[in-house]
Design a protein that fits this description.
The complex is a heterodimer. Chain A is α+β, with helices and mostly antiparallel strands. Chain A contains twelve helices and ten strands. Chain B folds into two domains: 2-46 and 282-409, no CATH class; 62-257, no CATH class. Chain B is 48% helix and 19% strand. Chain B is elongated and about 90 Å long. The chains are: A alpha+beta, B alpha+beta.
C-alpha cells in the first residue's frame, strides 16, 4: 500500500514537490513559534524565588561617572540614605542592590568551562537583600558580619547555577573568580591585569530569577555589598544604585512622594525615583510578550493562508484525477478505500516534509547558537509543529478526499 | 495587448471565486505586514520634522573606552564633545544633547512619568520644533543656569489640564522649572529629538557630567552641505583618536560621527557597540533577508495555487499556441496576469495596513506614535508587490507556456 502511494506521488512529482515545499516552510514557521512558546511557558512555570508584593524599588541617581569610580562621601551618603529609609515607620526592611528585579537590562558574566559557555547574571546586594525579597537558603549561609574585612569576596549563587557549575559537588567554598576555572585556586594575577580576588561561594539560594517570570537566564550569582568601610579603592564598596523596600501592608501610593522627599533631604545632590515592583513586573511582561504575540499573530494568519491554499490545491488535484479515481471505483474499490488513498498520499507527503525539516532543525541543538536554550525546547517545539501540520493537512484534505468518493465511475470513464 | 491580458485576467479571476479569494487573502496579508514593517522603520529614521536637516546631520551617539582588560560603553560624554569636537571645518552648527532620562513628578498624590532631555540652545536651531506656545530657551538661559523648560503637549495636559503653561512652573525629578515653551508631541521612536521635557544641560544637579568621556550625551553636527559630511566624519575620527582616556586601564577612545540610519543599525544589529564599522549595510542586509524569508511561504502558496490551475486553461493555451503564439509571449502574459493580481492584493493590503497603523497608534505600545503612510512607504509597498508577483508568477507561467499544444487541445486531463 505505502509503496503504491509512493509510486502515485512520484507520478505527479512536480506538483507534489511544490506541495511538500509549502508544507516544509509551514513547518519551519510553526517550529519557530512553537519553540518560542515552549521556552516562554517553561520559564513562566519555574519558581522565581520572590514575590513583588509589598516591594517598592527606589532608583538612586547619584551621578557616578563610570562603573568603577566613586568617592568616600558617596558611600557615606548611601549609608545615611539606607538608614533614613529604614527609620520610616511605613518601611519594614531595606536592601541595596546594583540592579533591582524586573529591570530592563542586566549584568552578565560568562565562563568557558569544560568547552561549554556558561553565562550567569550577577548582582551586588547588601545583607538585607535576602529578607527583603524572602529568598530561601538551601545550602551554606547568607552574608553576615563574619564576612566583614574578609580577604575573599563572598558570593551566594542560586541552585541552578550550583548544579550547572559543580554537578555532584559541594559548591560551598568554591572560587568563582574569572579567568580561572570555577573552583580552581587563584594564581598570581598577571602583572598588567586587575588583581583577581578570591570569590568564595558561601551559600546557595533555592531560586532567584532577576527578570522574574519571563527570565530565561538560569544561573545567577549575588555578590556581597558590605557598605561597612568607605575605602573607594575596593570595587565592592561602590554604593548600590537601587534600594528595595519592603513596605508594611496597607501602605498606599500616596506615600511615594513623601518617601522621595525624605530621601532627598538626606542626599540633596542625588535624584530618587520610586515605583512599586509590581509595576516593573507588568512592564517587563509587556516588553517580553508583545513581540511574541505579534509573531504568533502573523504565524496564525500564515497558517490560515496555507490551509486555504492547500484545500484549493487538493480540490483541484482531485478534479484532475477524476479518470483515475473513476477507474478504481469501476474496478470495485469502495468509497472508504478511495478516500484512504487520497489522505494516505497526503500523510506520506507531510511525512516527507517532516523528515526534511527534522534533518534541518536537528542542526540547531548541534550548533547551539542560542546556548541558553535547552535542546528539549526544540524537540518539544518541533513535535508540536509536526502535530499541527498533520492535523492541518488532514483537515484540508478531508473535503477534497470526500469529493473524490463522490465520483461516479460511469461519468468519469465517459471522458476517455 | 496589455489591456487584452488584463481583461483575460479579470475573466479568469471571476471564474473560480474561491481561488481568487485565497490568492488575494495571501497577497494582501503578506503586503500589509511588509508595509507595516516598512512604516515602523521609516518612522524611526526618515527626515520627519523636527529633524528637517537630517540629510546633512551627523551624530556621535555612542562612545567606547577600550583597554586590554576592560571596555566601557555608553553615550558620548560632555567632555569629549565640548572639549575636543568643537569648531570643525564644514560644520554649520553643533549641538550637545542628552539621551532622554525617565523621571517622576508628583501632582496631588499621583505619579507622573516623563522623559527629560538636557540640551543646549543650538539644539532648537538644528531641529524645527513646532511651538504651540512660547519658544525655546536661549544661550543666555544656559549661561545663567536658569531653571527653564520646554514641555510637550502631553505634559501640559498632565500638569495643567491643557491650559496655557508658559510662565507657570512644574516639578520634574525633584527640580522646579519655569515653562517657556510648549511643542507638539514627538514619537519615542525618534530618539534624537524625543522627550517630554527639555531643559538646559546646565540645570543638572551636579557638574559631574562635564568630566565625562563616556556619558549620556549625543553630539549633533549640522554640515554646511552633504558634500562636507565625509570630511566631518574623518575629522571626528582623527580628533577622537587623539583624546586621552583619563582612566587607567583604558588606552583608546572609539566614537564615530554617523547618520541616524547607521546609528539605528548599530542599535538594532549590535546593541550599540561603538567598535563595529559601517553598521548601515548590515541592517539593510538583515532587513532584506527578513523580508525575503517572510515572503517565501506566501510565495510558495501562491505558486502552488497557480500551478494547480494550469490545466484549467489548457484549451486557451492550445488555441493560442496553434495560432503561433511563442512560449515567450505566453510567459509574459501569465506574468502580467499574476503581477496584476498582486497589485490588486497590494491595494487591499495597503488599506489593511492603514487600519493596522491606526491600531498601533491607538494602542499606546509606542509612546506618541504617529504612524502614517507616505509616498516612501507607498513606493516600497509597490516594489514589494511587483517583486512578490514576479517571484510567485515566474514558475507557473513557465510551466503553462511549455504545454504541448496537441495535448492541451485534447484537454489532456481536464
Amino acid at each position: 500500500m505505502t509503496r503504491h502511494i509512493f509510486k502515485l506521488i512520484w507520478h505527479r512529482k512536480r506538483a507534489n514537490f511544490l506541495l511538500i515545499t509549502e508544507l516544509f516552510f509551514s513547518l519551519l514557521v510553526l517550529f519557530g513559534v512553537g519553540s518560542i512558546g515552549v521556552y516562554m511557558i517553561e520559564n513562566w512555570r519555574r519558581p522565581i524565588g520572590f514575590s513583588p508584593e509589598h516591594l517598592w524599588v527606589v532608583n538612586v541617581d547619584m551621578r557616578v561617572t563610570g562603573n568603577d569610580t566613586f568617592t568616600v562621601s558617596q558611600v557615606e551618603t548611601m549609608q545615611r540614605v539606607l538608614q533614613a529609609a529604614r527609620d520610616l515607620p511605613q518601611v519594614e526592611n531595606v536592601a541595596g542592590a546594583l540592579l533591582p528585579p524586573y529591570f530592563l537590562g542586566s549584568s552578565n558574566r560568562a565562563y568557558e568551562y569544560k568547552g561549554r559557555r556558561i553565562e550567569f547574571g550577577n548582582n551586588e546586594v547588601t545583607d538585607g537583600f535576602k529578607d527583603v525579597l524572602g529568598l530561601k537558603i538551601v545550602q551554606g549561609r547568607w552574608f553576615g558580619r563574619e564576612d566583614d574585612g574578609a580577604r575573599y569576596l563572598p558570593v551566594v549563587i542560586n541552585a541552578p547555577m550550583a548544579e550547572e557549575l559543580f554537578p555532584g559537588e559541594d559548591p560551598i567554598g568554591k572560587n568563582l573568580a574569572p579567568e580561572h576555572e570555577p573552583g580552581a585556586e587563584v594564581h598570581s594575577p598577571s602583572p598588567t591585569g586587575p588583581v583577581m580576588q578570591e570569590q568564595r561561594v558561601v551559600g546557595v539560594v533555592a531560586a532567584y530569577r532577576e527578570d522574574g517570570e519571563v527570565d530565561g537566564q538560569v544561573a545567577q550569582a549575588l555578590y556581597r555589598k558590605p557598605l561597612v568601610d568607605t575605602d573607594p579603592s575596593k570595587r565592592e564598596n561602590r554604593p548600590p544604585s537601587t534600594l528595595i523596600l519592603r513596605m508594611r501592608p496597607g501602605t498606599t501610593a500616596a506615600f511615594e512622594e513623601p518617601l522621595v522627599k525624605q530621601l532627598q533631604r538626606v542626599a540633596r545632590e542625588w535624584a530618587f525615583e520610586v515605583k512599586p515592583m509590581s509595576e516593573m513586573r507588568s512592564s517587563m511582561i509587556t516588553f517580553a510578550v508583545a513581540p511574541v504575540a505579534a509573531i504568533s499573530l502573523v504565524a496564525g494568519f500564515l497558517m490560515l493562508m496555507v490551509a486555504m491554499g492547500l484545500t484549493g490545491v487538493l480540490w483541484q488535484s482531485v478534479t484532475q484525477r477524476t479518470k483515475e479515481i473513476g477507474l478504481r471505483r469501476a474496478k470495485g474499490a469502495e468509497r472508504v478505500r478511495v478516500q484512504r488513498q487520497i489522505l494516505g498520499e497526503l500523510v506520506v507527503m507531510t511525512t516527507l516534509a517532516v523528515v526534511v525539516a527534522a534533518a534541518l532543525v536537528a542542526q540547531i541543538p548541534l550548533l547551539n547558537p542560542l546556548y541558553w536554550i535547552e535542546p528539549h525546547v526544540y524537540v518539544v517545539g518541533f513535535m508540536m509543529a509536526a502535530g499541527v501540520i498533520y492535523a492541518l493537512t488532514l483537515l484540508c484534505g478531508w473535503y477534497p478526499s470526500h469529493m473524490a468518493t463522490r465520483v461516479e465511475p460511469a461519468e468519469a470513464l465517459r471522458y476517455e | 495587448m496589455l489591456t487584452n491580458y488584463l481583461k483575460l485576467a479579470v475573466k479568469v479571476l471571476a471564474r473560480r471565486k474561491f481561488f481568487t479569494f485565497v490568492s488575494l487573502f495571501g497577497i494582501s496579508f503578506t503586503l500589509a505586514v511588509l508595509v507595516l514593517a516598512t512604516a515602523l522603520v521609516d518612522h524611526a529614521v526618515a527626515p520627519f520634522p523636527p529633524e528637517v536637516h537630517q540629510d546633512r546631520t551627523l551624530g556621535v551617539y555612542f562612545t567606547e573606552l577600550s583597554g586590554e582588560h576592560m571596555r566601557r560603553n555608553g553615550g558620548a560624554g560632555f567632555k569629549l564633545l565640548d572639549g575636543y569636537l568643537r569648531d570643525m571645518p564644514g560644520v554649520e552648527r553643533m549641538s550637545i544633547v542628552s539621551y532622554p532620562n525617565g523621571v517622576y513628578s508628583y501632582l496631588n498624590g499621583t505619579r507622573i512619568h516623563s522623559y527629560v532631555k538636557r540640551t543646549d540652545s543650538e539644539f532648537w536651531r538644528i531641529m524645527r520644533f513646532e511651538f504651540v506656545e512660547g519658544g525655546p530657551y536661549t544661550t543666555g538661559d544656559l549661561d545663567a543656569h536658569r531653571m527653564v523648560a520646554v514641555i510637550n503637549e502631553a505634559t501640559r495636559r498632565k500638569f495643567f489640564g491643557g491650559a496655557n503653561a508658559v510662565g507657570r512652573s512644574i516639578e520634574v525629578g525633584g527640580q522646579r522649572f519655569q515653562v517657556v515653551g510648549v511643542v507638539r508631541d514627538i514619537p519615542i521612536l525618534r530618539l534624537v529629538p524625543f522627550a517630554d521635557v527639555w531643559v538646559p544641560y546646565t540645570t543638572d544637579r551636579s557638574d559631574e557630567y562635564r568630566r565625562e568621556i563616556v556619558g549620556d550625551m549625543m553630539g549633533l553636527f549640522l554640515a554646511r552641505s552633504r558634500a562636507d559630511m565625509p570630511a566631518i566624519s574623518a575629522e571626528v575620527a582623527s580628533r577622537v583618536a587623539r583624546v586621552p582616556t583619563d582612566d587607567k586601564g583604558f588606552d583608546r577612545v572609539i566614537a564615530h560621527a554617523e547618520t541616524l540610519f547607521d546609528t539605528a543599525a548599530r542599535v538594532l544589529t549590535t546593541g550599540g557597540d561603538a567598535s563595529v564599522q559601517a553598521p548601515g549595510k548590515r541592517l539593510w542586509f538583515v532587513l532584506a533577508t527578513l523580508a525575503l524569508l517572510f515572503m517565501l511561504l506566501p510565495a510558495v502558496n501562491l505558486v502552488n495555487l497557480n500551478a494547480s490551475r494550469i490545466m484549467e486553461r489548457a484549451s486557451e493555451i492550445g488555441v493560442r499556441k496553434s495560432f503561433g503564439a511563442s512560449s515567450r509571449i505566453l510567459v509574459w502574459q501569465f506574468l502580467v496576469e499574476n503581477v496584476a493580481l498582486t497589485l490588486i492584493g497590494g491595494a487591499i493590503g495597503l488599506a489593511v495596513s492603514i487600519w493596522l497603523l491606526w491600531l498601533v497608534n491607538g494602542s499606546g505600545l509606542i509612546l506618541y506614535a504617529n504612524l502614517r503612510l507616505n509616498y516612501r512607504i507607498f513606493l516600497a509597498g509597490l516594489g514589494f508587490a511587483v517583486f512578490f508577483g514576479t517571484m510567485s508568477g515566474v514558475y507557473p507561467a513557465w510551466r503553462m507556456s511549455r504545454l504541448n499544444p496537441v495535448q492541451a487541445l485534447k484537454g489532456a486531463s481536464r
